[in-house]
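Technical note accompanying the year-one report. For the benefit of new consortium partners, we illustrate the data format agreed upon in the data management plan: each record pairs a sequence with a structure-token string. No post-processing was applied to the example shown here.
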Amino acid sequence: MSGFRSKLARLRSVGSSPEPEGAGRVGAHTKCGAGLPGERVQMPGGALRLMMRRFNTRQAHGEVPIGRALGVAASTVARLTFDPTLEGLDLSRALFLDTETTGLAGGAGTIPFLIGLGRFTDGAFEVEQLFLEQVGEERPMLEHLRSRIEEASCVITYNGKSFDWPLLRTRYVLNRVPMVKPRAHIDLLHAARRIYKSRLQRVRLVDLEEQVLDFRREGDVPGSEIPALYFAYLRGGDAGPMCGVLEHNVNDILALAAILSRLAEGYEALRLDEDARDRLGYAEVAAKVGDEERAASFASAAIAAEGDASCSLRALLLTSRLARRRGDVAGEGDALRGALVHADPTACAMVHLALAKHYEHRGHDLGAALRHARETCEAETAEGSAHRVARLERRLARTEAPSTP
């Protein structure tokens, strides 16, 4: 094992110098000669093709320096992921993981032939790539991955809970290699979907790079082409096309660190240039985890940004719910009346229903409650609407009836 560790040290110092400082906007560039880069390292379970890159923490992936991920608070990640068990996690020991596979459907026949691992170490961001040169030689790759997971406080992926980790777990079982479960698994896809779903039609990693990080890959290998390129390599083809796959994987790892930072920073402080829909996404997440002051602040900012009508409507409805929770009757009414302005015909009935309840139970204005109750037919059953109107008419009649001497 000492020979393996010495080769790791040599890989860190040779051909893996840190990238230049500054906010560069280009992706990683993998250099290939006649064969694949890196070194074939002999391990107890067999040989492993290992490639290593080190990046200066000040280098940016798009607009975000990758080193900013070191400053992310575990408490923020716990809120973004709805997972309170992440409170107190040491994110400086996180392992960023991404795989390239022989297929996108998963299952026992799909093999992860390239595993990218990123971690902060010795003042830099280090990316290791474990490459399967021959099918059937997975054991050393899986054992090295296991050692990295054992060292890490958590694993961070993008769609890893649904794809990467189940696939790796299957390979451990089929290869009869003892498996270690990550102490924690943070899948950024779910947090990103909650924040950006209103603005982005899709939330693939490349969509977030372009629309959130302002990063565009030049000459990137499409993920759909990667399995065919690997099979061509196995048939004795040129290693050159595989270098594009290696570069694709490195950029995926760098993107994970940048997205973690952007998601957390967006939750912790309001950005002046933040899209109204993103502000609303943060507000809704904060409301669900009970961070109501932050939720109200972001909802108010979403309203002030004057986004589209749907965004304003949702922000105003959220504002009304938050006001009701803290007993702010006037604030609830103001928000609901504002929501009525932005509501389309379908949503109008729903807002009228909310206003009818507000005026009857908290605003103590039965006349206003009745006016809104007469507009709720499309938001509740005809029987329910009729019952509400009749009840309010009876109550109003009692209050208006002259008192007997």
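Partners are asked to follow this layout when depositing records. The longest strand covers residues 46-56.
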